[in-house]
Structure formats: structure tokens, C-alpha cells
Alanine--tRNA ligase
Amino acid sequence: MKSQDIRKAYLDFFESKGHLIVPSAPIVLKDDPTLMFNNSGMAQFKEFFLGNGTPKSPRIADTQKCLRVSGKHNDLEDVGFDTYHHTMFEMLGNWSFGDYFKKEALAWAWEFLTEVLKLDKDRLYVSVFEGNPSENVPFDQDAFDIWKQYVSEDRIILGNKKDNFWEMGDQGPCGPCSEIHIDLRTDAERAAVSGRELVNADHPQVVEIWNNVFMEFNRKADGSLEKLPAQHVDTGMGFERLCMAMQSVTSNYDTDVFTPLIEKVEQITGKKYTNNEIKNISEEQNKTNIAIRVIVDHVRAVAFAIADGQLPSNTGAGYVIRRILRRAIRYGFTFLNTKEPFIYQLVEVLSNQMGAFFPEIVAQKNLVSNVIKEEEASFLRTLDQGLQLLENVVAETKGNEVSGEKAFELYDTFGFPKDLTALILKEKGMSFNEGEFEKSMQEQKNRSRAASEVSTEDWNVLVPGNVETFVGYDQTENEVKITRFRKV
Ligand code: ATP
Ligand code: MG
Ligand code: MG
Ligand code: MG
């Protein structure tokens, strides 16, 4: 089954169960001070769970563009190194707002996976919350009893608070979750070690695919729980992982979500990617594979963020996007030998592939590809020199810690985000001094403030001549957007 058809099968199934199908919310959030990017399907419905407003329907389903690169969910460091965590991914979700509850949610999840998609029942494990008496949260007996109708008890795993209990914050709605995991190992491997032992153990072939959250409690200020007047269901399934399971492969990157992008990178760079079935590859091939995975992952995050209105910049969400793109550019430069912009060419492929379902990527294709191309050109102008400087610094460093001032110089003069410097150093078993970096950053801020401001009552006016103006997209490093601002 092609990924397009898998997505459609999910939405059709939940439509047949009375759900209203809605479009994905934008990946970038503009009006939520607590969250920069959508990192789960429920974010756009948060207010309904808090009792503010009423949804269009008590049953809703969709696929949500998610980004997990900052805050509570940050998977960036795993991306490229493992085969099932992405920066941007789609989360298929179905919701009940005070309507159906555990019985229907779990029955439908099981029916969809085993009867519609016909996944092998013997590869599936489920988990339920074990309870935590010290925090007043009970064992989820209901979910356990429901699952017993579908699977043998040895396939039901009791999970702890970290994996199997969801809370919005210290107070407010919360409740147990029930996850579904799939074991994609070979028959011989499965015969040797039970998949049960490998659930939630970071095994690349025994992965979580679906999380069903049951909001049934409200946590009060004193920490105690009370039953919510209306109980809700919030589910999230990793689309790319589901495609992996359905397409009989063992890496998300070997599904048709990623193969067209990988083929394009191969065509541009002349490098070859080896799929996950090919074992015992050389160290160099492994690096090539990681670089290709990083690039095809990151381009999706960056492209969809730009299409949703978030341009790369030097602050806030824009800087997160710039950092992701620079990480990809450097992987290309170092491991695929790409000295010219090329990532922008993947936007066309992405648009062909995802455009039918996400029209924004088609509508914004030219803008997205131009912005990425400019960003690439701009960073490539300083990348080589910066890497050379870093090499010299490393050669001069005794021990494993590079000076924070040098890391700051890379940031300030060569545009190296500090996590990129950290990543390159980590490849050499090294790090830099964070405290020194922050100190240099603060000193620089103080200097530029002193140089560019004079005080006139409660307004600060930037001194003409000291203001670096925005002169084009490739010169945003010193961008100053605001020329007058109120002193705080
Ligand atoms: P994991 O334990 O694998 O990190 P999670 O428990 O953090 O996943 P949830 O927050 O429960 O994930 O999200 C619901 C589903 O979204 C998961 O079951 C998984 O299939 C998918 N998912 C989560 N994070 C990612 C990611 N970074 N890339 C791709 N899919 C993901
Ligand atoms: Mg996670
Ligand atoms: Mg998990
Ligand atoms: Mg989970």
C-alpha cells in the first residue's frame, strides 16, 4: 500500500465511525505563548479539553504536521542516527470530546490495524498504565480488561508514568494512555527473544506506533485527582512508522514517504544510500547514510515551516528553522561533498509527493525553494572557513573541551548555531565550554546595545550609522528590524 492510500484508509475508517475529518493545523503556532510548533495532534484542540469552546463535532480525525525539535519533545539529536524519529512527521489522530471512551477507541484502533490494514496480530503489543499509588493514580483496569478481549495477556505490558500517563501540566486534565507497539524483526529474531522484552527499550525494530490517551481526571492544585465531568479521547499514530510496518521495511526512510527524496539526493550528489536491509556497511557508507537521512528529514521540516509562514531568521521559531537547515547543509558539505546549494531542489519532489494532501506546499513551492536556496548560499559562504577555524582550534586544544569564546566566534562570525558546533565536536569526542560561550554572547549584546542606542526619555532611538539595515535575504545575519522601541 502506498503512503497516500494508508493516510486515506485511516481518515476513511474514522469517517465511517462518525468522525469529522479536518485539515492539519499549521506546523507553526502564532498565538500560543507556551508552544512554538505543533508537536502533537491535540495541540489545536487544547482549549476544548480545558473546557473553553466547543468543537465542530464531538468526533474529529485528521493528520497533523508535527515538529519535535524544541521544548518537552525534542527528538533532533536522534534524527538521522535512528530510523524512526523525525523532526517533522505526520501524526494521525482521532478524538472524542466527551463522546466515546476507552471501549470504542481501543476496539477501533485494533480493528483498523488488524482488519483494515491486516497487520499481523502476532507482531503487536499493547501497554496500559500500571498505576502509581503515591500520586493517587490508579492502575488502568478498564483498558486492561478491554485489551484482554483482543490479545493474550502476555501481549499486554504494564507501563509507568513516563510512557503511560499524560498530563497537560501540573494541574488540569490528565489520564492514562495505552500504546500499541509493533515488532518488525525477522521470525528467527522473534523466536529467540520475545518482543515483549523490547517494548519501549529503544529497539529500532520494536517501535511504538499509536498512543491512545484517555483524559478522565482533573488534577487539582493540591495534587489530588477528581473525575472529569466529561471524558475525552486523544490518539496519535506516527504515520511514517505505520507506512514502515505496512510496506514491510524496517526503516521509515525505506518507505515511499522518503525514497523519492533520497533518490533525488543520490542523483544530485552521485552518492548512494543503502537501505536498512543491507548490513555490514563501511564506516564511510554509514556516514553517507546518516547525512542523507538528515537531509531528507530536515528538508521536510524546513519546507513545511516556510510554507506555513515561518521564514528562517535569527530569533525564536525562525532561528529553530535556520538551525535545522544549517545542520542539513553541513551534513551535505562534510559527508556528501556538496559545495553548492542543492537542498532547495528537493522541494519540487516534496511538492509532487505531498501536494495532493497538503496543497500549501504546492502553493508556496517557489518561495520555499528560493528561501532555502538563499539560506544555503549564505551559509556555504562561511561554512568552509568556519570548519577550518574549528579544525585549528581542535588541534590546539589540550583535553576535550574547546574554549567557549571560539565557539562564540564561530556563531558570531561564521553563523554556526551553537548546537551545530556541539555536534561537530561530538563527532570528535569533544565539547565546548557553555559558560564561556554565554558570557561572550552577553558581552557582545552589551557592546552592541551601548553602541547603537541613545536615550531620549522613555524611547530608545538607534543611532544612525550604527544601525545595520536589512539589505536582502542573504544578509540577515545582522538584521535589525526594529528602529524604535520602548525602553523596558
Ligand atoms: P517515542 O517513544 O517513540 O519517542 P512518543 O511516546 O514520544 O514516541 P507520542 O508523544 O506518544 O510519542 O506520539 C504519538 C505517536 O507519534 C507515537 O506513537 C509515534 O508513532 C509517533 N512519533 C512520536 N515522535 C515521533 C517522531 N519524532 N518521529 C516520528 N514519529 C513520531
Ligand atoms: Mg518521544
Ligand atoms: Mg513513547
Ligand atoms: Mg507515546
Q: What stands out?
A: The longest strand covers residues 206-219. The radius of gyration is 25 Å. Residues 3-246 form a domain with the BirA Bifunctional Protein; domain 2 fold (CATH 3.30.930.10).
